[in-house]
Amino acid sequence: MTAIPQERRVVTAIPGPKSQELQARRTATVAGGVGSVLPVFTARAGGGIIEDVDGNRLIDFGSGIAVTSVGASAEAVVRRASAQLADFTHTCFMVTPYEGYVEVCEALAELTPGDHAKKSALFNSGAEAVENAVKVARSYTGRQAVVVFDHGYHGRTNLTMALTAKNMPYKHGFGPFAPEVYRVPVAYGYRWPTGAENAGAEASAQAIDMISKQVGAENVAAIIIEPVLGEGGFIEPAKGFLPAIAEFAKENGIVFVADEIQSGFCRTGQWFACEDEGVVPDLITTAKGIAGGLPLAAVTGRAEIMDAVHSGGLGGTYGGNPVACAGALGSIETMKELDLNAKARRIEEVMKGRLATMQEKYPAIGDIRGRGAMIAIELVKDPATKEPDAAAAGALAKACHAEGLLVLTCGTYGNVLRFLPPLVIGEDLLNEGLDILEQAFAGV
Ligand SMILES: *Cc1c(COP(=O)(O)O)cnc(C)c1O
Fold first, then answer.
1. One Pfam family name from the record (predicted)?
2. Per CATH, is 76-337 categorized as 3.40.640.10?
């Protein structure tokens, strides 16, 4: 699968001297607004390992933010993308089309939930896909309002900043934002005032009441939700919430959009996270895991909704680039061949088992949640008050990094450690990573 030995190896301080040298050059020329979780410069990556320029090999619990689910150098992705590179790099699908784009749209029609007629349009980034889902929904409904949720994340462009909940770092100082965006509550079980068991029913009732009374259902073009909220803290809306919102959308002629950019493509142990409660979205946005690391995104949905837009109304110079499409076909081939949904479910089993044991010892772990290989722990100062502990999340991440385990943080309160290993990671590396996390708890 990959030439990189699947073994952790720490041979210098992290970051090592060569990374530090590169970091100095970076600081001189790369804009300060572009951050990095860990300034370790990558030489090679594949399977569950990132090898840096100093020869360290880190266990990867990040997958480049849920992108390299098949690994960062998956054989089928490299083979197909390389062959495509040699044939042609670009024509622009809007100038002269090519088969790869069509094949990706066929695969999306097959894999996304629902057996209705579907069509897709391809783009470069997740934010671009979300923007286009809004364009399609507005065009189809003739309405303007867009409803999103607390803790939601949908991107960094002007419209998607408006859709995103969290101010720092995503929105701060970047306004004014796009109008006609309305935010309503989500069923965040762990923090729901009357308890997780009531969150699904109460939050959906509140959200529906706000939409009906404050926006007017007949003004709403789209309701956009992540079936598992990513940047907001790997929040799984409590059971019943998604179906209730989807039903409300259907009753009121509102386009229901599932943003599966982070949760899609086997990440949660199903092709798409909304399948968990049998929700069939009208439109679904995908990106991240779709193409094994190459930049590709899509909007897929009911043919009559997608076709509401006039010819020429959707597109972009690079959207559905042929090399990225070849990468997607290689990535999907790998997901099917290796049954990565089953792998993701196995990762969940291993991780949740180990994390539950850690929670008994370390009550700072207030909540363990997520599905498949999209697992998180929420850290609190005291499990009784649930006061968020962002400092603990930061300190744990730092301790893991020093030992050669790459982990990421997230959450509205910055107190969530999230684990997004490549789905092809070996079980030995997975357990070794969890050993390092456990040691980090002992040290912090
Ligand atoms: C990452 C993400 C986006 C934005 O994708 P980009 O490719 O960074 O523009 C949108 N929605 C969700 C749920 C995401 O996780």
1. Aminotran_3
2. yes
> Could you identify the atom of ligand 1 that is nearest to the CA of residue 66?
15
Compute φ and ψ for 378, nearest 5 degrees. -100, 125
Class of domain 17-73+339-443 (CATH, top level): alpha beta
What distance in Å separates the CA atoms of residue 261 and residue 297, rounded to the nearest whole number?
A: 8
How many angstroms does the Cα of residue 318 sit away from the middle of ligand 1? Answer: 18
Q: How far is CA 173 from CA 178, 328, 438, in A?
A: 14, 36, 38
Helix (H) or strand (E) holding 437: helix 427-443
Q: Is the pTM of this model over 0.85?
A: yes
Which helix (H) or strand (E) segment holds residue 400: the answer is: helix 390-402
124 Cα nearest atom in ligand 1 = 7
Q: Per-residue pLDDT for 98 more than 70? A: yes
Tell me how far CA of residue 53 lies from CA of 7, 43, 72, 101, 142, in angstroms: 16, 5, 16, 35, 53
Residue 42, phi then psi, degrees to nearest 5: -85, 135
pLDDT digits (tens, 9 = 90+) for 28-83: 999 999 999 999 999 999 999 999 999 999 999 999 999 999 999 999 999 999 99
Ligand 1, residue 65: give the atom nearest the CA: 1
Cα 196 from Cα 215, distance rounded (Å): 27
- Closest by alpha carbon to 330, among 238, 382, 265? 265
Name residues contacting ligand 1 (CB within 6 A): 125-127, 130, 153-155, 226, 230, 259, 261-262, 287
Q: Cα of 209 to ligand 1 centre, how many Å?
A: 28
Locate the domains of the chain by residue range: 17-73+339-443, 76-337
Residue to substitute in 67, 68, 130 for testing ligand 1 pocket (most ligand atoms within 8 angstroms of CB): 130
